[in-house]
Amino acid sequence: MRGKCPHCLHDVYFKPQSVGPVGTTTDWGVNALEGRSDSERIAVDFESCPNCQRLVVTCVVATPAGTDYKEKVTQNWFIWPRGGAVRPVPPEVPEHVRTVYRESAEVLAISPMASAALSRRCLQTVLTQAAHTKSKELSQQIDEVLPTLPSSLREIVDAIRVVGNFATHPIKSKSSGEIVEVEAGEAESNLDVLDGLFDHYYVQPERLKQKKAAINQKLADAGKPPLK
Model confidence over 69-123: pLDDT tens digits? Predict the structure, then answer.
């Protein structure tokens, strides 16, 4: 099977990994464990990534498609890693923010509604603690920070407000952690926006701080005053 490795994010041809006693085979191949009934078959498929060597485990559900018993796959999802592709989080992001972000990413494939609730909570935390917004409602917090963001980031932050309807949905607007219906792609877009905000509020300031410290050290070595 070819696809993007959910661990290292490289496009690869996955390598089947045998399971069970040596030589055990199923209709799905030597890399699958399966269970079946008259109406459906479930296989757990084991493969590895040739780039990072990590294991990828998927679950496939198939049902008979007709009297000839050709099967039709009805569900297919990652068992490991949980939630599919691992979204890297910069080390500069505080641990309590990283934790909520990761949980949102892990449940995305299972429940977009739960993922969106977690990502909105994470977004509100970032806007409150890193952007120091004063408002209590998420839509108003976004209003506060929009003028201060780079144009490219401003566009995507404003876009999730439109998609998520934060300003007009009473639950989304006033209680960011509520689990409510989400628009198609909203949960994943929230995570994309958080990626941009992490870079803006955590990564870039830390890099500038380190550069300033390095310059000040050079100035000190030369007997000159530090940068203000």
Answer: 567 777 777 778 876 666 788 999 999 999 999 889 888 877 888 888 899 889 9
Name the β-bridge partners of 36: 41
| 3-class secondary structure, 15 | strand
Residue of 156, 155, 160 whose CA lies nearest to 138: 160
Whether the model pTM is above 0.85: no
Task: Provide the CA 220 distance to its chain's centre, in angstroms.
Answer: 43
DSSP 112-158: HHHHHHHHHHHHHHHHHHTS----SSHHHHHHHHGGGS-HHHHHHHH
Contact between 49 and 26 (Cβ < 8 Å): no
Angstrom distance (rounded) from CA 216 to CA 228: 9
Sign of the four-CA dihedral 6, 1, 188, 156: positive
